[in-house]
Amino acid sequence: MLTKAAETSELLPGGMKAVTLGGRELVLCNWEGAFYAVERACGHANARLERGALTGWILTCPLHYAQFDIRSGEALSGPAPKAPDSKHPDPADPALATRSLRTYPVKVENGVVYVDLP
Length: 118
Ligand code: FES
Fold this sequence. Notes:
By secondary structure, the chain is an all-beta fold. The protein has one domain (2-116): 3-layer Sandwich (Rieske Iron-sulfur Protein). It contains no helices and eleven strands. A hairpin with a 6-residue loop joins β6 (58-60) and β7 (67-69). It starts with a strand and ends with a strand.
């Protein structure tokens, strides 16, 4: 079901916007005029991804810097490694595994961004 999510003017290229549609929290992303929708919660520890950085099609989490491909939701990397003398746990620990993000089809029509929700 196509659901209105935002006006295109609300998202400049490189911009992100959190929206709640049909009870789902998503982040809309504008990569050079193409719009994408991914789930809002980071696949590592649920940080709000719209607070991260969008560089091209790579979304970087603001908390531990896991990176995702907004086109597919694929987790490209997990949390950033800590310094060897850190007391933080090893990011290779399975408990810190990073899952890929769910993505949603997007359609743009007459300046409006629609997300196709299942
Ligand atoms: S919560 Fe996103 S990398 Fe840890």
